[in-house]
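Work package 3, deliverable 3.1, input record:
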Amino acid sequence: MDIVVCVKQVPDTTEVKIDPETNTLIRQGVPSIVNPFDKNAVEAALQLREKYGGKVTILSMGPLQSKEALKECLAMGADEAILLSDRAFGGSDTLATSHALAAGLRKMGKVDIILCGKQAIDGDTAQVGPEIAEHLGIAQVTYVSKITAVDEQVIRVEREHEEGYEVIEAQMPVLLTVVKSINEPRYPTVKGTMKANRKEIPIWTVDDVEVDRDALGLKGSPTQVRRIFTPERRVQGEIMQADTAREAAALLVKRLVDVKII
Amino acid sequence: MQFQLTEDQQMVQKLARDFAEKRLAPSVAERDEKEEFSRELFNEMGEMGLTSICFPEAYGGAEGDVLSYILAVEELSKVDDGIGITLSATVSLCAWPIYAYGTEEQKQKYLVPLVEGEKLGAFGLTEPNAGTDAAAQQTVAVADGDDYILNGSKVFITNGGEAETYVVFAMTDKSRGTRGITAFIVEKDMPGFTFGKKEHKMGIHTSLTNELVFQNVRLPKENMLGKIGEGFKIAMSTLDGGRIGVAAQALGIAQGALDHAIKYSKERVQFGKPIAHNQALAFMMADMATKIDAARLLVYRAAYLKDQGLPYSKEAAMAKLYASDVAMEVTTDAVQIFGGYGYSREYPVERLMRNAKITQIYEGTNQVQRMVISGAILK
């Protein structure tokens, strides 16, 4: 089985700072990580390989430093990794990114399952996965929380909902986006890490793939980011003080009645 | 001269850091409070290969270097140095002497499972009456046909009781003094090998410390490590390496305490501003950071020398002496920065200060380190 996992290197959002002048992310000094949902996708791919055999390839589009993220996926146990990197890809929004990744996937030839995280934690759009499936004209299932069965033609998965899950069967090849609850990503091992470090990661430029150049980069991006900002903090709630629980409860009820909540 | 870690070293460091933050940090306070050693967490470390870093592939190792291993001990110790010393004891004090002095059969039988983290190792040298004076061993091994009969006891043994493999030192010929000491590999389930009291310690509660008791333990002569009478040499060279591990533990403790102090001092507001804005505290932290960096350079250099196959006994002693003193000073200052909260078990610096003390004591007190250093420079 040929499995490809699309991953994104993202800034560690626990440490994200925004430049108040330019309203852009300050990337300098902010550690980069593999998008956490993508790690779930890698884990799902590795589990599929363990069960059904085959090969797991990681694909990413990004600047050369994204190699770090690919190495981490290789250290987890992926077989190969490929990076799409070119100035022509720079400034891409989700649509342009999905065109580039779809072109990369076409070049890879036979692929049975494409796995993506449900969304990236920096943009939170959840668009790239579904867009890739559209470009490739294959089935897609989003928010997958369990892969229950796979045969040569059909895959059966559970799709997470707020109130439960759907059981979905899809024709292969298929693109799945996975949620956090699907698994617990494994830790890379020391040996895997050292092996990953020595592995060649091919870089594919825009010349290596067949793609409409106008669909890439800023030119191919209908979305333009005008401003990124931290929403203003809401005012702190009202703190009521009383000497006893009984008084506190009375105060609270009175206040709730005043504002017509009860 | 390079001051930059290689990519391999950085990746091992990151691996250990992630593991420490995700797996050790959530439970360390509770395990400390309950004085609980977690075999489960150690097993996870084994599966990740943290026990395999600095050994050759032929014995299940990852072919990394000593410095990578030391970086792992440091990272674990920032969060949970009890686990840090658990790793250091099994790798530096048990696996290493078997690797360095063992026969091929001993390496296959005992080293491989230690490297792969399936088994835990320990080292038994100290006795109630043979601490710094290690030559005063009262544990004896007497030849009996093809076997040796081991009698005696060992105290303060890290990983004792839980470890499956022990490197134990015993007198085989009292008349020869230090040259009458021999090393043996003892298995946990050998008849006559039992465990005495578990120590209740000031700190490092997340690691085990136990007494080993040997009553007529029959050891096949294949379990002799090195040659007869070589035990003292094996013990001393093993401790040279172990000291780099203790130094890394101390370094981790110190860095952990400084990280907590920096964070807290930026958040804690008194007189309308974060306490970090007081120069008195800011300068304290500047001194802490400087001392830690100096210690770090000593520790990494000792590991580097060991990697290069160069003499490192003096440098390991310097690293252990300095890093452990820095750990004690820095953790004391960190508690001071936290004020009353620092003295409370609600905050981690209290634990770090309790734990720092042992690094000035074990694997040779800091007075012993000065003996090693002065011996080397005055010879």
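The longest helix of chain B spans residues 231-267.
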